[in-house]
Amino acid sequence: MKPTFLKIAANTLLIAGFYMTAQAQKLKDVQEVSVTAPANIKIDGRNTEWNDTFQAENKRTGIFYTMSNDDKNLYLVIKSTDLTTNAKILAGGITLAINTEGKKKEKESITLTYPLISRPTQGGGQGGRRQMGVIMNGGGRGSQTPEQRDSAMAVMQKRQLGQVKEIKISGFKKTTDTLISVYNDLGIKAFSSIGNDKAFFYELAIPFEELGISKDAPKEFAYNVKLNGLQLQGLDGGEGGRGGFGGNRGGGGNFGSRSSGIDYQALTSPTDFWGKYTIK
Q1: Which of 31, 76, 217, 237 has the fewest Cβ atoms within 10 angstroms?
Q2: Where are the domains of the chain?
């Protein structure tokens, strides 16, 4: 009995050690290696195939992500667990830019933006103020606890994602359209969701032929991931239209309700990063 017990204890400690070592390893800020995508991928906004494991955690944008490929498609998966980052993504979408010449220049890149949330007119006045209020407070009314606020925000975001019907594109090889359905016949697939843990998860697939690249002749390309944020112009109040909303007391970070938990400056400031990838 003793040898068996000692063997089990040793194995348990060994497994725990491996786990603690893995946990202690910090993810790269930008992915550095090419990755073969999991088999039988289904673009459904679920984290199933990816096992909640990512290649990088980008501090500038506040997201976890992995770029990968199989024989026919390039894939991008993104996860965010931060309240402000989630709101920022829902406010302006994520734009992926791919420069097949390896240049870090968005102007010369193929671009795709998703999700696209339909919102009230953003020209300022009451429409803009109402839009900001919904984003900042999760659609809730009256006094809310942080837990109630976060739950209300998650419910609102799930409802918004369920209404997304289009993907914005530019520079693709087989179409000149700038807006395509999420149910398009081009093989471009995008889907995202808000989980029960209130985390945002995003899956994207783009066929190589739409990018003008091939696995048979792989070459390094540059990519940019941008969280566009909320772009409101002309909100009454001057100073770029920002001063009149929600009682800015003292300027700086949080606008609107002080209990919203959302950083206004972060919400309205685009953040991005560049990386490079070679088809595996």
Answers
A1: 217
A2: 41-278
In degrees rounded to 5, what are phi and psi of residue 56?
A: -155, 155
Give the H or E element holding residue 131.
Answer: helix 125-137
Q: Which three-class secondary structure state does DSSP give residue 114?
A: strand
Rounded to whole angstroms, the Cα distance separating 29 from 31 reads 7
Residue-wise pLDDT tens digits, 34-57: 999 999 899 999 999 999 999 999
Domain 41-278, classified CATH 2.60.40, yes or no: yes
Return d(Cα 200, Cα 190) in angstroms, integer: 14
pTM summary value: 0.79
From residue 196, alpha-carbon distances to 19, 63, 127 in Å are 25, 18, 30
The SS3 of residue 98 is strand
Instruction: Using the structure block, give the residue that is written with the tokens 């990968």.
Output: 68
CB 20 within 8 A of CB 13: no
